[in-house]
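Me: I hope this is not a bother. Any chance you could explain this protein sequence and its structure tokens? It all follows right here:
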Amino acid sequence: MARTARAIAVLGAVALSVSLLTACTEPAPERESPLIAARERAATEVDAQIAGIASAGVDLDRLLLVDSGLAEAAGVDGSALFESLHAVTPAAAPTTGSSSAEPASRQSEEGLSVSTALAASTSGSAHRTTSTAGAGAPNAAEAANAAANGLSLAVDSIRDALGAAAQDDDSLAEFDSGDGTNPQIGWTVAGGAASGTVTSTISDTGPDGTRFEMITEGEYHVLVCPAADGAIEGGIWVRSAITVTPPGGTPQRSVIELNIDLGGTSNDEAYAADSWADGTAGLSQGTPGPGPADLATKSTSSETAVESTFVYSEGAKEVRDVALDDPDGTNLTTIADDLTMQMQQVLVRMAEDYWRGGNCVRALVTPEANAIDTGDSTGISVRAESIVDGTELTAGRSEWTGIVAIAGSVTPTEPQKLPGAFVFESADEKGWANPEFMVTTRRGIGANVAPIQVGGTGLVFTGTYGGGVYRGYSCDGIKGPWTMSVFVPEIGEGWSTRMTFDDALTSGYDDEGTGNAGPWAHPDALYWFTPDGEGYVFHADPYDPSFPVSEAPVEECTG
């Protein structure tokens, strides 16, 4: 089983503990239709969905603190714990997005105008142990509340990972908060998958000596770039241990473990078509064992299956149908199902945004000519390539997005099967046309532009000679004015000047040029071009660099 989510890790401590503890013995309360709830969540943004997971954890506090029997077994007033819970306002702690250790990713200089860039910022998670009220019990409640608000921590770590990878040309990123941090978070995005771990510890001791400790650990692995058949998959594992120790009393511990396999498919439009989650949730309670999540003796133990299936109309934002496995109707099953559904929904949503945002598929857009005159046209090929494995993708479509930087048109305007063939026809405007194209496949969406310069064709030579880097260009042909420059890297200085070549293709010094040290062309020097096949070669006397001249796009010629 792929083990995927420390995301639920923080969620586990309070939320799951609660749910599983009560589940064994009490019937589930009436709840809103799962389909209605899923549709309402799907219509919200990811931030709201993550906040909903944290809220679900807070709602479960009563089950954990009052109904589970944990407080009673420890000799602590569970009602007092719960009543003090809502009077506490946990302080926000830094998340992975605000850590001083920046994700190891590279900011791309070119964005996709049709892509959905995932934000790397995250919402705050609460981890506070300062006591504000009561004798002993309120401290435990405060820690529990902090845990409940921390349910979003793991999901935030996944969002951080995808946000960082979305800024890298090859969709790669990694982060490690380092040993000794709390929570300790690490993640990697590579090979089209996000993997990570989360470990969190919250503890407090009240004035009366009552001690509360929660340790949560988990891991996740989610395929965020669909496979060739559109399949997505992943896994979540989380274990949380909650221990209450009264002064002079016997510690009591509850341990929850959640294992979930995730899967689904994307369709030809690069939308999530469906998703499923299948796993188990188990709870054990007793006296603590030697490890932080071990039990020496068990007084209660239970396990339930968790299973849910979503069918989407047009991606994860539109839920058409929901199916749940609810065999016994107990709180354990109901709460585990609800939490699984929420986690499943937000993870699929984030993955879909990621693969539709240009992070899994690269559009390869190649014009037949990079430079054309006004009124001319050039063919353009559009192909798709997997960023994950470099495979060319031929099942899908290519299309012009309607975006072009200057006057001009692209035909055909209808989507074409991959690989696509298009024609750009320029008008009377000079400049870079850069028509944009998009490719859509089951493995994701990509976009790119065709770098076509219109009306900017000129003659140019470049080369290195005597420690200088030389460049010359003309927008009016081999005869007439040329602008020439030299840059010397060793001293970091450069100069330029202007020359005019006559019918014999020769020239001398023409004007004073520009630069911090005057013209580089000596008044006594001679410069000339000689034919060479279909082109020319630039020469100079007394030092002859012999630079070939070629026809090419010249930025200065577009003005």
Remarks:
- Residues 457-558 form one domain.
- The two ends are 61 Å apart (CA to CA).
- The chain has three domains: 7-99+126-355, 361-454, 457-558.
- The longest strand covers residues 295-312.
